[in-house]
């Protein structure tokens, strides 16, 4: 049935857009600093808690609360860079990676102690009542998730493609020495990558928390982002986006046309196949610019 | 000259002696003229902290209240809390610390199946009275161990049985859909439901799985739409279950949802949103923590005064309630064991509890071969405006 | 223009550069030669801020740059190329050059998205300037190719163009002729002389290839085992007995 297929596609693309948003940030940090950020899911979680805290306890309305969440998250990224990553700069890369695991655990348990282990409701931006168009139900709040993700990705694209700061970050990721020599401060670029990706973490969290509800373990979703990033080659931003959307679609299709018990197995089988047969990712052709 | 073999013999003898000493010390360890030492073991951090935190707050409240009322048979309770960090090795280490170093008389905990089940042998072998208020694996009490009791909460086997009976009763088409989490939690739950459905016979069912970190359930729900099921059992953690509840309504599926006890936190309906209206869940007692029952109101008011930080997180929850009830049941056992308190007399006293009411959760009944205090459940339904109501009818697994 | 005073560089007790002084005058091509391990590349790394000198001081236009960060040294008009090139492999050739030009052109994302005249003007001007620079090194027809896909000799030239895009006053070239064929070397010589004579650039050139060094250098400095051996005109160096002993002895064209 066509409607079933469209409904599945829609669900897959919406879930995939969230995966893509997370994958982009992971790839950005990895390419810019060499670190795989295992704290990302927890940064995402903490960002939403800042939002909830600002709303419930400081009584702010949504817009300023979002702004505070994004800024606080960015400052946290700055703190990670200065307090953890910069001192570990010359250590083997495994050490900063393990440090991110520790940062994540501290965030998670700190939030759990402070805000409690129970779920907090986070209001949706748009209505959750569906429209039915030709047998397909379309939910405005889901479209808001998709729309916000797309807008964020377009902003990132514009930033990297058309601003000198974006170009400088790309250049420093591609070749730190080369960047230094044309006058780009590579150290400052690393810092801005941590700030930028931490702000993205809060945004991704705010986008998905109404859907998933907010608990200290909401960061688990970053696993899907990792899978999407690997699918896209863990090297290119467009690859991360395609990997995310593709993962969402594979899950939805496999869940329906094979079986829901096979859904995870099918997605991870694709992932393993990619690692074995295309270790640089499905989309890492020369024509796609890496970051 | 001491050979290696001798060394082993000596070590072996020392171990036997040590073991004998533990057994000897066991009977009234932790009991003095004016004190009883109780260990509170639970997950205060990690994914299972919801239950451990409830175990600690509910337990603490009951113990503080009895101390304020003069104690038990002239003795005050002294309690030591240890965090098992949602990890089985930490749980075993914490248990040993409480028994060997802190020399407690009894233990209140552990609080999650993931930590508790791997500890069962250690706990059963220790002889230390263990009183559980939170975790739901049937293995804790079946087969029964002499020293391990549980009250208040509903075990997974009983819940599966009650759920299956209930959904069969309300399904006019005798056709059930099951959505369950793909991990151990969802698997155990679904196995028990499915086993009972087969036992009942003449019921169709379809089973679909999801991952705890999934955000989209379109594929599973569209498969269910193809069946003629009119009741949907959801067996998963609160966060993914909330999305399932919502998407069922968004895809306009004509299903009555019945969730497991995991979907009964006070803020759960709010996390789902208006789509939660009409959804039902298993609940282990007829008293809702936000309800107007006399004992519950007293408990809630005292809780909000004692734990203002938790109150601002919409607590007390069912976990706090079950722990408070469990601790009161344990206290009753200690009281009935009398002034001549040993582990043996406590176990005997607990076995003597029949329909022991606290007004907080379902009455507890134990016996010489019964360690499961509560074996029945109620159904809670979300009303317009997202308030909750217990539906009439008690459902028993016996 | 560039002055090194008594530079010493040690790595874990190993002395790579020992008390070397050197000056590059405005508008000259100054060659730095010496056998492998003489400390030539170390000196370039010190001048561009990639290494810090253990002792001594480094002046550019009479200001000390010994403690200045690399990117600021680059911005003050002193840049370089690398022996193995350090291009942005996935950027096109002209984008590589435009990154070098970037701090000359200021435009924001808003004016870009709205396609404002200021952005269009700037973008056009930057592209034009980058293209003119490519023309100067005769590689304009590769403008839209990915830099990483070019053959080695061309990548070298792209790197020189990118360096020129930062509007340097002094250019440091690390073995620009290594691996080039005969006719490419002739072209390179011509280009370097043009840069000096037409743009007034000073060039510090590190190379083994004597066809380059001897043909175009105004002055030559010879290092051996991290120490200064001699400085002088090509003719003086050729006849310096210390240099012959240390380095040139019987080596002919290539050392």
Q: Biggest β-sheet of chain A: count, sense, barrel?
A: 2 strands, antiparallel
Give the end-to-end Cα distance of chain A, rounded to a whole number of Å.
40 Å
Major β-sheet strand ordering of chain A: 1-2
Number of helical elements of chain A: 11
Class from helix and strand fractions of chain C? alpha/beta
Rg result of chain C: 19 Å
Order of helices and strands of chain C: EEEHEEHEHHHHEHEHEEHH
**CATH homology superfamily of the largest domain in chain C:** P-loop containing nucleotide triphosphate hydrolases
**What percent strand of chain C?**
15-25%
DSSP helical segment count of chain C: 10
Using the 3D structure, state the CATH architecture of the largest domain in chain C: 3-Layer(aba) Sandwich
- DSSP helix fraction of chain C: 25-40%
TL;DR?
Chain B has helices at residues 4-26, 49-68, 88-101, 113-126, 156-170, 184-200, 218-226, 238-250, 268-272, 294-306, 308-311, 318-337, 343-351, and strands at 35-42, 76-83, 106-108, 130-132, 148-150, 175-181, 204-210, 231-235, 256-259, 280-283, 376-382, 388-396.
Task: Describe this entry's structure for a reader.
The complex is a heterotrimer of chains A (291), B (398) and C (255). Chain A has 291 residues and is an all-alpha fold. Chain A contains 11 helices and 2 strands. Chain A has a two-stranded antiparallel sheet with strand order 1-2. Chain A is globular, with a radius of gyration of 19 Å. Chain A starts with a helix and ends in a 14-residue tail after the last helix. Residues 285-291 of chain A have low confidence and may be disordered. Chain B is globular. Residues 16-24 of chain B have low confidence and may be disordered. In chain B, helix 2 (49-68) crosses helix 12 (318-337), helix 3 runs parallel beside helix 4 (113-126) and helix 12 (318-337) crosses helix 13 (343-351). Chain B is 44% helix and 17% strand. A 7-stranded mixed sheet of chain B has the order 7-6-8-9-10-11-12, sandwiched between helices. Chain B contains 13 helices and 12 strands. Chain C is built from 10 helices and 10 strands. In chain C, the strands form 2 sheets. A 6-stranded mixed sheet of chain C has the order 6-7-8-3-9-10, with helices on both faces. In chain C, 42% of the residues are buried. Classes of the chains: A mainly alpha (291), B alpha/beta (398), C alpha/beta (255). Chains A and B meet through helix 1, helix 4, helix 8 and helix 10 of A and helix 2, strand 7, helix 7, helix 8 and helix 9 of B.
